[in-house]
Amino acid sequence: QPRGSARAQGRRAILEKFGGAATGSAPHLKRAGGTATVKAMLLEWCRARTRGYQHVEVQNFSGSWGSGLAFCALLHSFFPDAFDYGTLEPSARQHNFTLAFTTAEERAGCAPLLEVEDMVRMPVPDAKCVYTYLQELYRCLVAKGLVKTKKR
């Protein structure tokens, strides 16, 4: 079976699971260079928003998100009154994911594309799932006017 069709099947599986909510690139992130550039820009945005948060060092879309603290830090950077980040522990993964995804849904209007149970079950989160979720979160924050984008 050709590699391309396996990749396409993977994409279809993600879209089926997530209902296609985050198809396409995040608004105003598209630049010449395609998907790799969009991914790099989204990763850099996450890095910049979470810089300085204890126990968080965003390097990729998989292991960097494993404790749930990177999601919490990202959301806390927009909604500092939502919870006390300083009380969170890396080992309390279920609590961290629940807090982050609930905050994203309630405060940013982000669709619940990731399940806490799935995230806790995986020692290292799936990069495609995390990337898809972060694209959707970015879109929601742009829609709420919380992320400033350059008009073209």
From TrEMBL:
Record's keyword terms, sorted: Coiled coil, Phosphoprotein
Pfam families with a match to the protein in the record: CH (PF00307)
Protein's UniProt keywords contain rRNA-binding: no
Domain spans labelled Calponin-homology (CH): 36-142
Record-linked InterPro entries: CH_dom (IPR001715), CH_dom_sf (IPR036872), F-actin_Monoox_Mical (IPR050540)
PANTHER family on file: CALPONIN HOMOLOGY DOMAIN-CONTAINING PROTEIN DDB_G0272472-RELATED (PTHR23167), SMOOTHELIN-LIKE PROTEIN 1 (PTHR23167:SF45)
Family: Belongs to the smoothelin family.
Protein name in UniProt: SMTL1 protein
Source organism of this protein record: Galbula dea
Upper lineage: Eukaryota, Metazoa, Chordata, Craniata, Vertebrata
